[in-house]
Amino acid sequence: MLKFQPVLPYRCIVLAMHGFQPLLELKTFKVPLTKLYLLPDFQRRGIGTFLIRQLIAQAKALNAPLRLRVLAVNPARRLYEREGFSVQAQIEERIFMEYKVKS
């Protein structure tokens, strides 16, 4: 069985004082997918789908969107669309996509 440890999301710590009580809040903004490469011999075997689904599960657990960018000519775009990502923007050859967690 494959074991996968996802990357921690970007976080922001908000610290304030209420009287003499410190208030600490940890906010998660997004789960970024910065790089995912599979060698040709390992493509089309479900490995990419497995990894994307693991990241989606992490995003759901954190109630945070999962964002990525992909080249417009990259066939992996179909994988992302199939798994529920939608195009948010396109700048020249780059496409910015997001998986929005449903509440």
TrEMBL record:
PROSITE patterns reported for this sequence? GNAT
The protein's organism comes out as Chroococcidiopsis cubana SAG 39.79
**InterPro entries xrefs:** Acyl_CoA_acyltransferase, GNAT_dom
UniProt domain N-acetyltransferase: residue ranges: 1-102
The record's section on CDD domains has:
NAT_SF
Q: Which Pfam families match?
A: Acetyltransf_7
Q: Which GO terms describe its molecular function?
A: acyltransferase activity, transferring groups other than amino-acyl groups
SUPFAM superfamilies for the chain: Acyl-CoA N-acyltransferases (Nat) (SSF55729)
Q: What is this protein called?
A: N-acetyltransferase domain-containing protein
